[in-house]
Specification:
Shape: globular
Number of strands: 5
Structural class: alpha+beta
Largest sheet: 5 strands, antiparallel
Distance between the termini: 47 Å
């Protein structure tokens, strides 16, 4: 049977250009349990997967984390200061959706926390302007 006519169930079992059923199940569990922030590397040709990227690959990433933190501070009446980017996942969606994990310090008591922010860098506007939307910013939940 040619690849084009292969049943969908058989394609899940293919390691040529996709993931096995077990890998898909593990990926979906990681996405679900971490909301996309803690997802491993999966080698497949599927578009739209959340994948880790190097924290230093784009100079805008720290500024995105700072924007998200400013948003959080404004809404929560807190005074956290950005320290460093720890981890970045990304997903291609009409631009790029970044899942940022970063360290912050409370300016009032110097206590450090780990934060997570989901930031959507949209496709540039007609005039070439950046279009960035903060979708979420939170203290990273502790796992039990």
């Amino acid at each position: 049977m040619s690849e084009a006519k292969k049943p969908a169930d058989d394609m899940y079992d293919s390691d040529e250009d996709g993931m096995s059923r077990e890998d898909w199940a593990r990926y979906e569990k990681e996405v679900s349990s971490s909301r996309g922030y803690d997802v491993g590397v999966y080698h497949c040709l599927s578009c739209g997967l959340i994948t880790p990227i190097d924290v230093d690959c784009l100079e805008e990433l720290p500024s995105y984390a700072k924007m998200a933190l400013d948003y959080y501070n404004g809404h929560s009446h807190t005074n956290f200061k950005f320290v460093e980017l720890v981890k970045v996942n990304s997903r291609v969606v009409s631009g790029i959706l970044f899942y940022l994990t970063f360290k912050v310090e409370d300016a009032d008591n110097q206590k450090t926390e780990t934060f997570q922010a989901r930031v959507w860098s949209k496709i540039r506007g007609k005039n070439g302007e950046d279009r960035v939307e903060i979708e979420e910013c939170r203290i990273k939940p502790t796992t039990s």
